[in-house]
Design goal:
Helix content is 29%, strand content 19%. The chain is α/β, with parallel strands linked by helices and 152 residues long. It has one domain.
Length: 152
């Protein structure tokens, strides 16, 4: 069995939490919205010595001015060639800056977030109930209206 098939067989039986209510909000029009990136590529600022580990449900705040990021994704199935060719594949900060410059979006957030993808089931509830809401508060406090999710 291939590595991909093994992983697919494991995650296909994972359950997800069920919430009694779904909070909703209405975002402003994109040309008025502040947009942030949330990625699961496990990005850190280049030179950050703290590496990601499996079952790490934390997140990293990436300041808007940061362009030199390193990929810390540990999944053996993750193809790193796109990231090596252009960081915008997983962290499209340059595209957001272009969209803000041409008026497609209102503004680029001063902060962006990176989680480590490929999490085992044990960390799902931690992310959903602890670090996810904490990360949402970071974004709300930064005035973010819309999130561009780059799931890796």
């Amino acid at each position: 069995m291939t590595a991909d098939a093994k992983i697919r067989s494991r995650v296909s039986v994972m359950s997800a939490p069920v919430f009694e209510s779904i909070p909703a909000t209405t975002a402003p029009a994109l040309d008025q919205a502040t947009v942030a990136i949330v990625t699961t590529a496990g990005l850190k600022a280049a030179g950050d010595v703290e590496l990601w580990s499996q079952s790490d449900a934390s997140y990293t705040v990436i300041p808007r001015a940061t362009r030199d990021v390193q990929l810390g994704h540990f999944s053996p199935n993750f193809d790193r060639s796109g990231f090596a060719a252009d960081v915008n594949v997983v962290y499209p900060i340059d595209r957001l800056e272009e969209m803000a410059a041409d008026g497609t979006i209102g503004a680029v957030s001063d902060v962006h977030l990176s989680f480590m993808g490929a999490q085992p089931d044990a960390t799902l509830s931690t992310t959903m109930l602890d670090t996810g809401p904490a990360a949402a508060k970071v974004l709300l406090d930064a005035g973010v209206d819309v999130v561009l999710l780059t799931p890796i």
